[in-house]
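cron nightly-structures :: item 1 of 1
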Amino acid sequence: MTTKTMLLASAAAVYLGYRLFQNMRTKAGTGSLVKQLKKDPAVGEAFADSLDISVQRTDIKNPDVATALQPYLAMTKNGLGDFIIKHIQQLDNGGYLFVTTTDYTEAIKAGRRTVESAEVHNLNFVLKTDIDKNQYVVYSDLYTDLADKNLRVDFAKALFELIQG
């Protein structure tokens, strides 16, 4: 093994260790957030207000959102596309707050070897109805990179598909 290959392999191992630590931290933070939201719904209301960046819109074809989301509200179902819904809360304004996690797998090349590493993302969303435009709108917070942005759009698409039938 050459020195360059050993250095690349060592760097990849350090990165994977860091990624593992970050994933555990993300999961613990998400669990803590869910615990707070379950304990006090007012926290969810305030948190939902902070999610104010529009991710995607769609025209309303099915106005019965509550029926489509009922299995998730009852927590008998938690998977939506590639996302795991950790918490859902109906808001006082008729919207819904979603706390989700998802894995994003990235290939890391070290010399001739390629190692796949999964990064856990905690993404939070609010579904609102824009009565004036007759549209559903998914809001979230600011994305950090292109993968993060694409994951947010993927969730919005999966949610619209679920509620529109």
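cron nightly-structures :: done
The mean pLDDT is 84.
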